[in-house]
Amino acid sequence: MKCRISRIENHRFEPLFGIGSTITVRTENPKSPSPQLNLEYKLYELLDAAPGIPRVYSYWTEDRFQGMIMDRLGKSLGYCFRICDKMLSLKTVAMCAIQMLCRVEYLHQRSFIHRDIKPVNFVFGVGNLSNTLYMTNHGLAKQYRDLHTFTHNNFNVDKGVAGKARYASINVHLGVEQSCRDDLESLGYVLISLVKGKLPWQGLKTVSKNDKNKLISQSKFETSLETLCQDLPNEFLVYMTRVRNLRFDERPPYTLFRSLFISLMVKMNLAFDYKYDWVIKQTTKLDNA
Q1: Which residue range(s) make up the domain with 266?
Q2: Which superkingdom heads the taxonomic lineage of this protein's source (predicted)?
Q3: How many whole angstroms separate alpha carbon 236 and alpha carbon 108?
């Protein structure tokens, strides 16, 4: 069988290549300081191609690189946000939030936390699955409880910041061991940034990454949830307040969190019709061509 291989995106940790129209080859240098691909492959196998989780087909290692063959996906939520001038409607954000909460809940049900929740790690499918939002890039994922007994990891401190500081939870900045609540707080920051365009701690100018992380942390502590959610429907404040109040080993009320955004859509008479802002923009562009 002959396959045409083309590079489709250059990711931070490894190149991504597309084969035909349905499969992607993801590669990583085995000599990388923090290799992640093998862990990610094993986690994808555990997640077993559930809705919103890409299927993996094989993994191999050679001298110069290691690779993983998986389902090819479409554009990331981060990309869609950028082409919409970095501002999304409440309808689009609510539709995304409901799917994103489903993906995060499923990962947590399988005893793992993501630890790197951000827009580019949520990617839409292709073809008949173009409306489905996938959660990807599990290289920083960590098991938070025993797979069989479901015994939760112990509470620890003096941990570093894993993932992007912009979306990290308050407890991550305090050096607290991450758990389910931290993924959900990060998700809240993502949703607020999508609908407001940016977060209060974005755009800080510093010399080093260390200094930037400190300034971001300081800004998060100084910004009240009321200020953070100002001019947004009350559902955002309720979500963030409930998430911030979760205990380290508490099972989050995922259904309640989803219901907030479902209720928001009902209250605003918004249809869950998958007409995202970028879809409308593209349709309008074609109509005017």
Answers
A1: 75-279
A2: Eukaryota
A3: 22
